[in-house]
Amino acid sequence: MKSPETALRNLLRGRLDGHERQVRGFAEPEWRRWTDLLSGALLVAVRRRFAPGRDPAALIRFVASARERFDATGTEVDPTVAETLVRAALGQCPDPPEDSATLTARILLLLGLLEDEGLTPTELDDLLTQAWTTAASHPPPPAAPPR
Question: What's this model's pTM, rounded to 2 decimal places?
Fold first, then answer.
């Protein structure tokens, strides 16, 4: 069975082959669940790292650092989208539109936050449990009816 939870856990633990096996063939509901879980994990990680109203320079430095570490070409992640995602998690602005640039930025930011924290496997599981709870308490809007 293809599990969004297992796929995300594999990604965040650096088990890319396991992640790829899980996501291959995801149907729309699994993809939606996976992106909801990713969003929940980023929300939890950002709120653990940054306090609302904190000096914006720290946020900008973090985004630059994460891009330096995880964006090999320096062009894969739009810094404005990445900064907006962090600010949105802190309730300072709305989320940017969901597209491939936003998804890429979410993954990169989450990897950067988790690397900075140096979580043990148990601590990562605790963070993911919080993310599952966050994603469950913020269900996605209903899909638009077919035309």
Answer: 0.84
